[in-house]
Amino acid sequence: MKSRKHASHRQADSGQAAPLARRGIRWHRWLVCFVAIYAIASSILASIRYANFRYDTWDLSVFRQALWSTTRGRILFEAGDHELFGVQSFFQIHPSFMMFPLAGLYALAPSPFTLLILQSLLTALAAIPLFYLTRDITNSDRKALLTAGLYLLWAPILSSNLYDFHLESFLPLELFTFFLLWTRARYAEGFLVAILAFLTLELTPLFILAFLVFLYFDQGITLLQRIWLTLRRSRASPSKPSPSTASPESGPSESLSLKWGIALGLAAVLAYLVLRLLEGPYLFLILGYTPAYHPTFGLSTGSLGLNLSYFTADLSMKLEYWVLLYALLAFIPLVRPRTLILVAPWLVFTFFTAFTDYYQFGYQYGYVVAAPLLIGFAYGLSHLQFAPPKEVRSALLRRGPRPSPAVAVTGILVAVIAANVLLSPVNPAIQYPYTSVIGLPGGSNYLYQTYSPNLYGYDNLVRLTSLVPTGSTVLASDDLFNLVTNNVNAYTTLWYPSPPQHLPFNRTHLPDYVLLSGDQLPEMPSFVLPFLYNQSVYGVRGTLAESPVGPVLLFQRDYHGPSANYAPLPVKPGIYNSSTLSVGYAQVVNDSSARFNRSIVSTPPQNGTPLLYSIIWFGPYALLQAGNYSVSLSVRATPVLGANVSTTTPVLFLEVDGFATRLLFNESLTFGELNSSGWTNVTFSLSLPSLTLDTQVRGYLLCPLAQVWLNYLEIAPIMTRGAV
Asked: Is 173 in contact with 132 (CB distance < 8 Å)?
C-alpha cells in the first residue's frame, strides 16, 4: 500500500509538472519569436537607413576605420578624432578592449552591415537575460515576457539602435546577464561578465558599483548598525565586554555573497581608475605614439565635463528627459523607489553636464540607461498585478462585475507600449533626436529617420568610390566618408571650421582623391577648392548627378582621362525668373510685359557701396552635366528719373561660374545695347568639361544713373547630331 501511495504521488507530481513544462515552453517560444523579430526588423531598418545615407562620419565610420586600421597595423586609428584632437588611436577616446575581438570579426566581413546587424542582434539578445531576471523577481512568466517585450519596444532603445554603431549596445546584454547571475548566487560567472563589461566601456564600473549598492543595501545597513552598536557598547563598558555585544555571525551563503560583493566592488574601482588612466599619454608613449591632448583625460569631475554650475543648464530639458524615460515605463520603476540607486550614475551625470546629447533621445545613450531602468521596472512590476486577457475583454465589453484595479494596470501598460512604438523611430513621422519633449525635433538632417526606397543609387555610389585604389590618400565629404573608411589614409571634411586642425593636407600636400558631396559643399576645405577644376592638378574621375546626398564628384590627381558618369541628368532646358533666382540690390515688381508677369529691377547703390558689388540677381545654382550650353537673358535698361545716360556707358556686367570652378564667362553690356522699348535678348555659349555644381549667372549694376530689368534667363543644352 505504501509503495502504491508513493507511486500515486509521483504520478500526480509528474502530471502537474507536464503542464508547467508545456507552459514554460510556450513562454520561451514567445520570447524567441520576440528576439528574432526584433533582430531581423531592426537590422533591415538600420540597413535601409544606411543605404539612404543617414549615417555620417560619427560614429559608424569612426568604428569601421578603427577596426579596419587595427588589422592593417595601426592600432585603432580613425581620422575623425585624429583631425579634431590629434589622437592617434580610438583607445585614447574610449579605452575599450572589446574593440580588438571586434576587429577580428570585422576583418572577416568588412562591411557596414556587419556592425549594424551585430548591434541589432546584441540589442535583441539582451531580452533573454532580462526575461529570466524578471521571472526570478516576479515569479511570473507573463510579467517576464511583458518586460522583455517592452524593452524591445522601448523608444530610447529603438532610437539608439537606429543611430549609427556604438559600444554602448553591449551594455544591456552584459548588465542584465551580470544582475541575473549575481542574484542567482553564481558569483564567479557574474564576476567574469562584470570584467567583460569593464573591458567594453569605461563607464560600466560605475554601474556595477551602483548595482552592488542596490543588492547589498540591506546588508550594508545591518552591518553599519552592528558596528555602531558594538562601538556604543564598548564605550559604555570598555574594560568588561559582554559576550552579548558580539555581533551574530552571518550564514555561510550571506558571508560568501558579501565577500564576492566586496571583491567585485574593489575590482570595479580599480578598473575605472585604470581605464581612465589608459586614455592618457602614458600608454602611447610606451607604444611609441605621440601623446596628444584630449579634453576628457584625467580623473577629476572636470575631465568628464561635470560641474555643479551645469545643474541649471537646460534644467527643464533634463527634467523632461527623465520624466519621459519613466513615463515610457508607466512610472513602474518608482513603485520601488530604491531602484533609483541603479540609475544614480546616469542621473548624476545628466544633471551636472551641459552636453545636450546626454539628455536627448536619438543618440546611443538609450543603451546606457536601459539596464538600470528595466531592472527597476521588473522590481516595480513584482508589486503590481495585471488582469488576464479574459477579464480585460470582459471589462471592454462591460460584462460581469466591476473591473478590478488589475484591469486598469493592464490598460496603462498597453497604452505605454503603444506610445513607445508611436514615439520611436519606427514611426517615420517621428524625427530624432528630440531637443525637447514638447518642442520640435533637433539635430542634423542625417539623423532623421526614413525608410523609403533608395531611388538614387546607393549601388552607383559604391561603384563610384570603388574607383579609389586601396591605400590612396582620400579627402571625403562627411556624408560620404562611410564609403571609404576601409582605408587608413582616408580623411573626412567634418563640419568644423575649415580645415580641421590636424587634417594632414594643405595647398602643398593635396590628397590623391577628393570625394565631394553636393549636400556638403561648404565643408570642403578652402585650400583645395582652386585645384579641383584645374586640369593641371585634378581631373574628374567619375560623377553621379543624383544620389541621396545630392550630386557627387570624384576628383583624381593628375587624371586626364574620360569621366565615368553613373547617373546622367536628363537633357532639358531650364528657365529661371524672379521666383527661382536670388535677388540682390534689387526688387521684384509686377510687370505685365514680363513672361511670368514679374521682373527683377535694380535699385540705386546704397551710399558707400562699390558699384562692382551692386549685384542685381544671382543664381540659379543649377547642376549642369558636361557639355555645351546656350545661355539667354531677356533684359532691358532704363534711365533713372530721366537721367541722361550715354549709349556707350556700361550698365550691366554678367559673369558665370560654378562651385570651385574658374570664371566660365564674363561680359559688360552698354546702355545702348539694352535700352529699348521692349525686352532685349542677350545670348552666349558655355562649354562645361564635366559635371558642374551650383552654376550661377550673376548680374551687376555698373551705372547708378540706369536701372536694369531682368525678365528671365534660360540655360539650354546645345544638342549635337546624334545626341539623345
From this structure: no
